[in-house]
Design goal:
- About 35% of the residues are buried.
- This protein has a seven-stranded antiparallel β-sheet with strand order 6-7-14-13-10-11-12, with helices on one face. The chain has a five-stranded antiparallel β-sheet with strand order 4-3-2-1-5.
- Helices cover about 15% and strands about 25% of the residues.
- This is HIRAN domain-containing protein.
Length: about 280
């Protein structure tokens, strides 16, 4: 299949999106480990896809559908089919409600949709994460949907040595009190039984709301030596009628380590440059 054929064209804005690159991550179906394997880029008119060096070291990974050659750069005037199917069709009656739940306007482009939602689907092994934007202050910022909201009441959380047990009713009440611009905080959760690098998104008083997405954790820890020092604010909050994974969108801003650059280093080198 040609990389310049078959995919529906997105209604891109003339000035292009702020986010230019999305990390394409793959989750091992057995170990559940999440690894970046490619970069998807949009320059305002054309899409580019490149596998990265890290893909060669990911156990069990195979080339993705439509991208059979690891060392080739794929380019298209249209969003590639593998990713176009992860965007909600504007003709669907629930389209406007869906993009509004993402904190976007009804005319949001496919690229904006994907950058905000992560492009994940039920039972899927692929997810995308936007490259953090560098502000004029030198700080880095990015938005993410808080993960695992529905799992917060299901187990005890040990945060700063204090055990926190949250009821579903308490969590729902707190979520309903949130408003745009409200300050939140991050709390490391080294006792997490699944991932000791886990970081909780919480209210300022420490009430847990959910987790920083696993696919962002490595970059968060690389970005700053103290994730808890990052500024986090509510960007958009949805009611209980929304799916749990769309309940809370936040924006993180942090002062990066000296010389840190997102999506950079040997493991992020495009394999096409080594062909």
């Amino acid at each position: 299949m040609s990389a310049t054929e078959t995919a529906p064209r997105g209604a891109e804005r003339a000035d292009g999106p702020v986010v230019r690159r999305l990390a394409v991550t793959w989750q091992h179906p057995e170990t559940r480990q999440i690894s970046p394997v490619a970069l998807l880029e949009f320059d305002g008119s054309r899409y580019h896809f490149n596998y990265i060096r890290n893909a060669e070291s990911v156990d069990g990974f195979r080339p993705l559908l439509g991208f059979p050659e690891l060392r080739r750069t794929y380019e298209s005037d249209h969003l590639f089919p593998l990713f176009a199917q992860r965007v909600m069709d504007t003709r669907r009656p629930d389209h406007d409600r869906y993009v509004q739940r993402l904190g976007l306007s009804a005319d949001a482009t496919p690229w904006e949709q994907m950058a905000r939602s992560g492009g994940g689907r039920e039972g899927d092994v692929l997810q995308l994460f936007p490259e953090p934007e560098t502000l004029s202050s030198g700080e880095l910022t990015c938005s993410f949907l808080v993960h695992g909201v529905r799992h917060v009441p299901s187990r005890s959380l040990i945060l700063h040595g204090v055990t926190s047990d949250v009821t579903r009713e308490d969590l729902e009440r707190r979520l309903m009190l949130l408003s745009r611009g409200q300050r939140l905080r991050l709390i490391s959760e080294p006792q997490n039984p699944v991932n000791p690098s886990a970081v909780i998104t919480a209210m300022e008083d420490g009430f847990p709301l959910g987790w920083v997405p696993d696919l962002f954790l490595n970059d968060l820890h690389a970005m700053t030596s103290d994730p808890e020092s990052a500024d986090v604010v509510v960007e958009h909050v949805n009611g209980p009628e929304a799916p749990p994974h769309l309940r809370l969108l936040v924006r993180l801003t942090a002062v990066p380590r000296p010389m840190y650059r997102p999506f950079s280093g040997d493991s992020w080198e495009p394999l096409s440059s080594r062909a």
